[in-house]
Every structure is written in structure tokens, then in C-alpha cells.
Amino acid sequence: MASTVPLIVRLLASSVSVANRAGKIIRDVMSKGELGIVEKGKDDLQTEADRSAQRCIIASLSAQFPKLNIIGEEDNPDTEDEIPSDWIVIDTDKDILTIQCPSNLQGVKEEDIVVWVDPLDGTSEYTQGFLEHVTVLIGIAVNEKPVAGVIHQPYYKTLIGGQKNIGRTIWGLQEVGVGGFTPAPPPDSLVITTTRSHSNPMVEKALQVMNANQILRVGGAGYKVLQLLEGVASIYVFASGGCKKWDTCAPEAVLSAAGGKLTDIFGNYYKYGPSESRPNKTGVLAAVNNDLHSYALSRIPEELKNTLSKK
After folding, report:
1. Against a cut of 0.90, is the pTM above it?
2. Are residues 265 and 203 in contact, defined by beta-carbon separation less than 8 angstroms?
3. Is residue 92 among the annotated active site residues?
């Protein structure tokens, strides 16, 4: 059956299974207590979990889809080392394989796709014990646009039939919708979600002008977008250049599949082609619907936009 399923649907189904395995690797590294922290730059950490999870994701997807262009946050982590066989995932999510693929994506070839991978979004929070903020992000872009995405939470806990389960995987596909969670409307009052560990005067100025009832400061782009999707927050505002394409590709795909919108501070969509620069230099503005996004966009002062555009 799988061979007759369009490529995009097969890739999404595989990405869900692969993200689950990467989440287990992240938990295993934490439980062993040897995080192997490396400083890549200012406020930019990498751990053994980041490196191992990325190796799992890239090796697994490359084994099934050898012509994919996969761009990961961690530059070629230990590629010369042999990858444990149980890190190579060839399973696919059977439920996703039954999805009806949108007509405009049915003819997509591997060479047309760019997969953006953040193997552990929220590394700083991971090292500090804020484990619910941690996500695994796999974003699938076609013609520079995110069309499908996976957000996996390794430490999400649920109780099913008296059994405690850990981890959950949320997915989204353009024109199909989302799965793995129950979407909720935005809160009655205006609640902003923003960075926990990468603030600066521009970020704070953008928050002040929103006139929010509450500001939530959390880690990881994936976790912030989940707050929008589950009705915890109304708008995600980050008026700075700290995010990268692998931070936003999967969240944008899932959010847009749910009817939301993610752009830069100017209201422009980011492009996710293979030659695009990695940094999202003009910030992030996201909301679960167009009205909230338009409100947030209208509140950003021109002077702040001018400052950010010169960065």
C-alpha cells in the first residue's frame, strides 16, 4: 500500500515515527546524566542529545528517501561514527498513510523537497530542567514553502487507561489539517508568548505595545506555537533575529495547517529553499488566526521595524 501513497504523505508518516525515536534518544541521554554540553556561540548550546537525535533523524530519512535535501541545525554531527542500528527507523505511521494528499502536492519528487530539522528545540531549557519546553522539529518545504511538519514533545505526559505514557507527536499537512492533539480557541484575554532566554530591548518594546493581559516567557519556537494551537496563548511575538529556519519551518507548517499564520515582524513569509540564509533576521510574529495576526502586525511601531531591518 505504501508504494501507492504520494511521497509527501509517506514522508510525513515516516517523520512522525522518526521524531518519536529521536524523542526517546533525548530522554535516554538525560537519564544517563552525561549531557556533553558544547557552546556553539553566545547563548547557543549543543548537547549529546542534539547530536544523537539529529543523526537518528537524518540517517532514517535518508535511508528511505535518498534524494531528499535535509538541513539540520547541528553541522554533520559525528558523521564518521557508525550509527546504532536501532536509531535507523523505517517504520511509518499507518494512520497518516491513509490521508488524502492535496492535489497540488501529489506529483512532488524527492528533489523538490527541503527538510529542515531541529533535533532538539529548546536546548537551553533542556539543560536547565524545563523539559516540557523541549520539542523535536521536522519541517517539510516544497517550492520554498512549508507544507507539512512534525512537532514532537519527548516529555509530554498523558494517562491512558491508568497507564502513564510519555511523549506525543503533533503533525500538520497543508489543506488537510492537524493531528496528535485537540486544537483549542485562543484565550478570552490577550496572552502573548515570547522568548524565555533571548530577550533584548527590541523584544521588550514589541511586547509592551501589544497591550497584553499576560506575557508567557517560554523556551523553543515549537513549544510557543503549541501554546497557540492549544489555546494557552493568543500571539507569539519575537522582534529579534535569534530564530533560524529549522526553528520555524515545522511550527509554521503545523500552525498554517490549523488555520494560523507565522511571518516575520513585517508580515512577510520566510522562504525555506535550500539556498536561503539560515537566520530569520526579521523576527517572528505568529497567531492562531488571521485577525490576531493582523492585530499584532498593526501594533509593531515603524521605528522598531526600521531598526530590525538594518540588523
Report:
1. yes
2. no
3. no
